[in-house]
What does this fold into?
Amino acid sequence: MKDFLYMDGYAFFVWSAYAVVVVVMTANLIYPLRRRRRLLREISQQASQNGIDDTET
Amino acid sequence: MWTFFHKLSSPRYFYNLSGRWLPWLAWSAAALLLIGTYWGLVVAPPDYQQGDSYRIMYIHVPSAWMSLFVYMVMACAAFIGLVWKMKLAEVIAADCAPLGASFTAMALITGMLWGKPMWGTYWVWDARLTSELILLFLYLGMIGLRGAIENPRTAARACGVLTLVGVVNIPIIHYSVIWWSTLHQGPIISRFAKPSVDPSMLWPLFIMVIAFMLYFAAVLLLRARCQILARERGSAWVRDLAART
Amino acid sequence: MNQPRVLSAYMMLLRRDVTLAYRNRAELANPPLFFVLVVSLLPLGIGPDSALLGKIAPGAVWVVALLATLLSLDNIFRSDFEDGALELLLISPQPMPVLVLAKVTAHWLIAGLPLLIFALPLALMLYLPWRALPVLIATLALGTPVLSLIGAIGVALTVGLRRGGLLLALLVLPLYIPVLIFATSAVSAAAAGLPVSGQLAIMAALLILALTLAPLAAAAALRIALN
It folds into this structure.
């Protein structure tokens, strides 16, 4: 296990490379998921507000 | 075939269709990413010359390949959007740019981290890294142009023209950079271009390339769905969807 | 039947733009002045070592030529955009690519051609070997029109934007790279006494490609930006 982490002395390079890739790919995954949730929430809030406005006329 | 494209011009059809494809894409991407990474990091033997540092190849090569592949997807989508004025094509083209930029940045950073153990220096002006750097600038320019134009349809069409101008220019830029590097580079660096790789090391590479492509498809669909929701927020089906969730 | 009309439209637009530019003679001097000024900064920044300066001279002159062209690009469409003349050009019966070509020609005559004239004093200042000077002028003659043409595409894309300057640079500079590579290679080769016909041939090819495609792309971009 220690050999695995040590990567023949190249630990810093291999692990930082993989870390960068994991971070970027996770960020690209999370961003649209959160945006979708936020959008749907906004739209339903707007719709309920418009519904309230409509009933007041 | 054409009826499929006609149906795709309805954002709602695309939203539902992509919703059904997404789990397949996402889970197969995840599985292949895990298998490929494990195979590449643990199972594959260390290289006799580079030791374990070559394992960066398993994320560098797929990233570099994707940075080019995404541009091709973006160019096709831009072309379809310009010629047939298909909204979905414009949406896809828009979402390709940040993803392409991400892959290019990943390719550059992993390339630099691979370069240091291999050549002793983080940056070298060899043809591939220089071309990737220029590609990153092209993607950033695309993102900048899209952000600067307020009307989304005008922005999509302007970026479409820019993408097609890029399609003509990228081969020219690439070959001029290759030619330039042969003028200035010593023989040592050319070894980096294609080290001969043992088959036992190639399988995880194929798996990772396919995994990255599935990942790209999944994330692209996620982003496209968001854009569709935003663009169609006035319509009834979106409001129903929002009310239901 | 349409040929003389198209040609005369081209000449008229070209003459108009050059005349307009000439009325603002102070502005005319800006690109060449910038060119000379920045190149003069290089020895101040790098040191007066003649061997070193001679070595970087081709690249330095060309990079500064790129920047000088970039600065002057805005003029191609900006004033016509602001007073509505650009929309009139778009709805005129003449093909828009020809009109764009006229404006690009005017831009090159105003901003690109002077760079050739100033190549001589700059070659002096940077200790460029004498035998490279004709090739320097040849590369500038072949290359600056390409810079104007490709730049026109960038300006057409960003014409409506308020702070398009930096974005224009980001869009256009990567596209300039092949011209830069082949031009500087030609001048360096000439300085070393090596043959340059290959590089010049490629630059001529780039020029022809730009002449045929860039007006089309710029016209398309203008149509998009103004609709």
